[in-house]
Write a structure and sequence with these properties.
This protein is mainly β. The chain has a single domain, classed as Sandwich (Jelly Rolls), CATH 2.60.120.10. Helices cover 0% and strands 53% of the residues. The protein is built from no helices and twelve strands. A six-stranded mixed sheet has the order 2-1-10-7-12-5, with no helix packed on it.
């Protein structure tokens, strides 16, 4: 499975890259990745008018969009629209950060899965 990852380089510039989540076990119930230790789980509701300028992620975290999407712009100008059902990993906790914007005028429910 591939997901998007937002990270900051050594100069503080944020960029997008695709990362592979590997499946290491498979049986009659399906395929599984290795377990990932998590520290917190936050349920979040985001208003359709959400439009936040440059900011850093508060922690390394996976974000899972449950029912609507978001547009995120890295500081290098790369834009990704992440729709309902998508999972992405944000790690730009330092540097220039990123911008986030609601899309399609929809309320977005999502999960923040903190890694630290």
């Amino acid at each position: 499975m591939k997901i998007w990852n937002l990270y900051a380089d050594e100069k503080g510039e944020s960029h997008w890259r695709e990362v592979e989540i590997g499946y290491t076990t498979e049986n009659e119930a399906g395929a599984y990745s290795d377990a990932i230790a998590v520290k917190s789980l936050i349920f979040r509701r985001v208003q359709p008018s959400y439009d936040l300028g440059f900011h850093n992620a508060p922690r390394r975290q996976y974000i899972v969009n449950l029912d609507a999407g978001v547009q995120i712009t890295a500081s290098d100008g790369q834009v990704r629209v992440l729709g309902a059902g998508e999972v992405f990993l944000v790690e730009d906790t330092t540097g220039k950060g990123h911008m986030s914007k609601a899309i399609d005028g929809k309320l977005r429910n999502c999960l923040f899965i903190g890694l630290e």
